[in-house]
Specification:
Elements: E1 5-11, H1 18-26, E2 33-39, H2 46-56, E3 60-64, H3 70-80, E4 85-88, H4 99-104
Parallel strand pairs: 1-2, 1-4, 2-3
């Protein structure tokens, strides 16, 4: 079985982009992923959007925390992540369908 890849997304004031970001991650060609959405105290619709994604897809996990910046949100995501591999995506970005293969491919150093 493929090793689990945890993708951590710090979320703050990204409601215009969040759905596209999440859709791009959940539609990866690499199937063994968990998505950790870290709501960093966003004052817009993002907290509810994160919860909605968690209800729709079992691979999505959500953390709600007081705003303390992207680094703090990434660290909170690392605390929750259970994957052997870790990736980070910004909430206002989207990724190509095979980006996870880059995270999980063996490095030449591993040979």
């Amino acid at each position: 079985m493929d090793k689990l890849l945890s993708i951590i997304v710090p979320v703050y004031k990204a409601e215009k982009h969040l759905d596209r970001c999440v859709e791009s991650i959940l539609s990866q060609t690499y199937g063994n992923i968990e998505l950790v959405l870290v709501d960093d105290g966003s004052p817009d619709a993002c907290p509810a959007m994160c919860d909605s994604w968690a209800k729709r897809d079992w691979r999505v996990r959500v953390i709600h925390k007081k705003n303390n910046g992207a680094s703090s949100a990434r660290n909170a995501g690392l605390d929750m992540a259970s994957g052997e591999y870790i990736g980070f995506v910004d909430a206002d970005d989207f990724v190509e369908p095979d980006i996870c293969l880059l995270y999980t491919s063996p490095s030449p150093r591993d040979s």
